[in-house]
From TrEMBL:
Membrane-crossing residue ranges in chain numbering: none
Gene, per the UniProt record: Efcab10
PANTHER family from the UniProt entry: EF-HAND CALCIUM-BINDING DOMAIN-CONTAINING PROTEIN 10 (PTHR21847)
Protein name: EF-hand calcium-binding domain-containing protein 10
GO MF entries: calcium ion binding
Species of provenance: Eudyptula minor
């Protein structure tokens, strides 16, 4: 890998730009606004205000949405889902699954799901 390419990767990671772009993309897919550019500008303004502790960070889903999604994943109503179901749910939302720390033998409850998502 060339030095310039590594510097570019380091820059992106240092500023956490891949995560930001993932979240913005997920927001767009979830809300599907008529005017996506304006929507993104507003979302970035909320991120900026949230970092200054002047506002709330723009979350993709609220607790009711998370509970509903969990219910869709927990089709038999066991009160938990598998890590495989969790990964698929994140992929469906367009969220990263790279940093998941769950073993395949773990059951994920609604509380864990809400906290992690």
């Amino acid at each position: 890998m060339a030095a310039g390419e590594q510097q570019g990767r380091d820059y992106l990671q240092r500023h956490r730009l891949p995560e930001l772009l993932h979240r913005l993309s997920a927001l767009l897919l979830y809300h599907r606004p008529e005017r996506p550019r304006e929507f993104l500008i507003q979302a970035l303004e909320r991120v900026k205000a949230g970092k200054r502790a002047e506002g709330e960070y723009p979350y993709l889903m609220d607790e009711a949405n998370l509970a509903a999604m969990f219910g869709l994943l927990d089709v038999v109503g066991q009160g938990h889902i598998t890590p495989a179901q969790y990964r698929e749910g994140l992929k469906t939302l367009g969220l990263s699954t790279e940093d998941l720390q769950f073993g395949d033998d773990v059951n994920i409850t609604l509380d864990v799901f809400k906290e992690e998502v």
